[in-house]
Amino acid sequence: MSEKREFPTVPLVKLGSSFTKVQDYLRRFESIPDMLELDHLTVSGDVTFGKNVALKGTVIIIANHGDRIDIPPGAVLENKIVSGNLRILDH
After folding, report:
1. DSSP designation for 8
2. Closest C-alpha to 46, from 11, 83, 14, 75
3. What is the CA angle 53-49-14, rounded to 5?
4. Which residues of 16-51 are buried (b: 16+ CB within 10 A; e: fewer)?
5. How far is it, in rounded angstroms, from Cα 42 to Cα 71?
6. Confidence at residue 80, expressed as pLDDT on a 0 to 100 scale
């Protein structure tokens, strides 16, 4: 654990069934998100994370059945709830 964390506790992370296998986990994260300021993360459904994503505070991401959420590279989510269907594409 990083000494830079404000509190000497690890974040609570709950990942849904789409993250049960290591292979699935690796496919859904382009890089490990910055979690230095994260308190709680819940992820459920078809969710992917781009590179250099920062998660802070409490973040809840829930993709509805049949929907997909792509967290874009460089995104900063702080105390956010993301649900439904979200795809941001570069052009």
Report:
1. S
2. 83
3. 95
4. eebbeeeeeeeebbeeebebebbbebebbbbbbbbe
5. 14
6. 93
Q: What is the pLDDT of residue 40?
A: 96
Q: If you search the block for the tokens 């000497």, which residue do you land on?
A: 8
Query: Cβ(2)–Cβ(36) under 8 Å?
Result: yes
- Give me the tens of pLDDT residue by residue for the chain, a chain 91 residues long: 677 887 788 899 999 988 888 898 889 999 999 999 999 999 999 999 999 999 999 999 999 988 999 999 999 999 999 988 776 665 5
Instruction: Please give the single-letter amino acid code of residue 10.
Output: V
Question: What's the pTM value of the predicted model, to 2 decimals?
Answer: 0.86
- Sequence-ordered list of residues with C-beta below 8 angstroms from that of 52, at least 6 positions apart, any chain: 31, 34, 73, 74
